[in-house]
């Protein structure tokens, strides 16, 4: 399976076996990460792969491996991290492995540059999903204008499944907006909507590349006015 097909069938898992990935697979995955073109040319996102003894947090699923994802202050830091590691989520799924973003997880060793974690390993049972089984907002709720790549962005995972994104497709480019906050009590606790938009941008990138075009995202001015409750982030050219 390729990354694009994974978008339409993937599912997060909470139930991993305790079996670690073979060393060779970890090596291949690290090599894959090196091939991902960053969202912004100067983005600097780093990571560690650790075992369960190095992480803490409420409700963290038991898994053989965790990514701890880091970055110093930089433009769209969390968005760049979401973009890079959603490629890894799709890669793992395409290889028969599974993962889950974990906003509630922290490294045992505190670090001010820590952004978020992700559990990964072998799923207890292989999980696949049909399109109709994705619990997602409709295209009309998250977009204006037509561009088939938005079908892929719509299916992106997000914290609390909040899907805090909006897209306006107009004469080629896609203008990307972030919902300022998630409503209600959950929204008071959840502050990663910028990272979620990076995840959706990854799906846009994979869909763009699938169509044989290069993906380019720029922080630009001159976008259609931001819909109520959203902020303009940038443009997919
Ligand atoms: C940024 C982010 C943080 C998340 N944090 C958690 C978490 O702390 N605990 C958890 O069980 N799931 C977490 N999730 C998983 C989401 O709940 C899940 O992706 C969403 O419900 C959509 O389901 P799907 O990934 O199966 O499509 C997180 C997902 C994202 C993208």
TrEMBL record:
It holds the Pfam family TM1586_NiRdase. Residues 2-207 form the Putative nitroreductase TM1586 domain. InterPro entries: Nitroreductase-like, TM1586_NiRdase. It comes from the Bacteria. Transmembrane segments: none annotated. This is Putative nitroreductase TM1586 domain-containing protein. It comes from Candidatus Enterococcus murrayae. The lineage of its organism: Bacteria, Bacillati, Bacillota, Bacilli, Lactobacillales.
């Amino acid at each position: 399976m390729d990354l694009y097909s994974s978008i339409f069938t993937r599912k997060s898992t909470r139930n991993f076996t305790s079996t670690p990935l073979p060393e060779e697979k970890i090596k291949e995955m690290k090599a894959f990460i090196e091939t991902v073109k960053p969202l912004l040319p100067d983005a600097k996102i780093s990571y560690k792969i650790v075992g369960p003894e190095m992480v803490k947090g409420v409700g963290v699923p038991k898994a053989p491996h965790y990514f701890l994802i880091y970055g110093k202050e930089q433009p769209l830091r969390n968005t760049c991290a979401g973009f890079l590691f959603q490629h890894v989520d799709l890669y793992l799924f395409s290889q028969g492995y599974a993962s889950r973003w974990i906003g509630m997880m922290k490294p045992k060793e505190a670090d001010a540059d820590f952004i978020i974690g992700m559990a990964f390993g072998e799923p207890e049972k292989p999980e696949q999903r049909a399109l109709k089984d994705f619990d997602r907002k409709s295209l009309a709720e998250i977009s204006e204008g037509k561009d088939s790549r938005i079908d892929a962005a719509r299916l992106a995972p997000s914290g609390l499944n909040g899907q805090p994104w909006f897209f306006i497709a107009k004469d080629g480019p896609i203008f990307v907006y972030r919902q300022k906050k998630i409503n209600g009590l959950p929204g008071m606790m959840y502050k990663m909507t910028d990272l979620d938009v990076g995840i959706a941008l990854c799906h846009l990138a994979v869909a763009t590349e699938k169509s044989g075009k290069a993906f380019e995202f720029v922080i630009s001015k001159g976008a259609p006015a931001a819909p109520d409750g959203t902020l303009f982030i940038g443009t997919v050219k």
